[in-house]
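Structural prep section.
Before we set up the soaks we want a predicted structure of the protein with coenzyme A in place, mainly to decide which crystallisation condition to try first. Input record follows.
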Amino acid sequence: MDYQNIYIEEEDQIAVITIDRPKKLNALNKRTIEELHTAFNELDEDTDIRAIIVTGSGEKAFVAGADIAEFADFSVKQGHALASSGQEKLFDLVENLSTPVIAAVNGFALGGGLELAMAGHFRVASFNAKMGLPEVSLGLIPGYGGTQRLPRLIGRGRAMEMIMTAAMISADKALEFGLVNYVVSQEELLPLCRKLAGKISNNSPSAIKQAIKAVNAGYSYDTDGYAHEIKAFGECFGTDDFKEGTSAFLEKRKANFKGS
Ligand code: COA
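Run finished without errors. Recording the tokens verbatim:
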């Protein structure tokens, strides 16, 4: 795919996807969602890539939401399709990706922007970041998983307040709420995300994939997370990564994981 609204940089087995529509504060239009869908799938299939960082271009925004201009005249049917295809193509895809996804929240993360960050496996923000789900101010509700993921991350009461007031919270408040794991300066944001991704990339990709699925299983109402964990734990014993990890420990050397 010929990318117009995103670009990808790869270094040391880490890919950085930058959403690049700075004049529109990186708002997610249909094309951007398609491009992100393709990019996440391709990077996930690339066994050399051990972690993905997603961020926004410019100094102002991570992503200021879904592109309001694109859905302003939508019907009920189109609104339903917008949420359902977006959730499937991007937000559920990211949440269930085998490769860890870190959201580097470098500015406004509003609506679909915060929903994208929340679909990621964890988040790091810069001091200037502002996060919110302002949809009710437009006569909408969050449609890309925000009503589900925000309460799970910060608790029901805080999420209800954020959704109902449509207000933005600061990076420090997001840290206090556990919505982001760290808050640093803009200059330090990508280096810190790369450092965390680097730590991840030393570990077994096949085990990380199982860990992501096991953690996510606990948030799925039709899956017994503990039963899932037992099965996944058992499956790890059949992988080359397990043999390599345990041998390296016993031989007092650094493990060289292949990911299978
Ligand atoms: N969809 C489409 N365009 C958007 C957008 C969005 N979600 N967010 C920002 N933009 C566009 C603006 O229309 C503007 O375009 P223009 O220069 O062609 O007029 C440009 O990005 C810059 O935004 P602007 O509003 O001028 O910047 P600001 O610094 O004054 O305000 C925000 C920043 C984030 C507070 C404001 O842009 C905003 O409220 N955006 C919408 C947030 C939202 O409701 N998101 C949820 C959508 S469901």
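Observations: The two ends are 28 Å apart (CA to CA).
Flagged for discussion at group meeting.
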